[in-house]
Input
Amino acid sequence: MKSQKSNSVEKDVASMPKASRTSRVSKSATKSKSPPKAGANAKPSAKRAKLPKNENSVVLLSGGNPQIAKADGDAPVQDYIAAMPGWKRDVGRWLDALVVRTVPNVRKAVRWNTPFYGIKGQGWFLGIHCITKYIKVAFFRGTSLHPLPPVESKQKEVRYLHIHEGEPLDEKLVSSWIRQASKLPGEECF
Output
């Protein structure tokens, strides 16, 4: 003989659409299972894709962007530059040297696998990032620079310079943007 409570539940379930009944059963069935264990004995649910490495044994992320741990100072920025693939490495060295010459008291760090340049107490004014076919130089207050860096951003004040392989670089213009950007209030997003 069924209890009154059991009959009530069966009526509720019978009146539900079939999809809801299935999901309700699935949810209750999964409640009894224990969660997967974390740690050394845990088995991954899916195989992780192997990411390519450069000659320095640094993992290259999407677009060939080096995966460098978050850190402050020149050393992690130099690690990032050394890990940049192919022609991008030379451009990275050139950009870093240009920033240091233009802004001698520059502060450096790597965040989100991107080198950042800033002024202590003012924030970050510039970041560089490897994309598949170019290097993206981000000026965080780029809309205040004259002339404007050529590439717009979805972010209101940011402007970009995209450097492609073999493209001639205007050192005078880029150093002017760096100088101007270093005098503006920067980004303190971390």
In short: The chain has a mean pLDDT of 79.
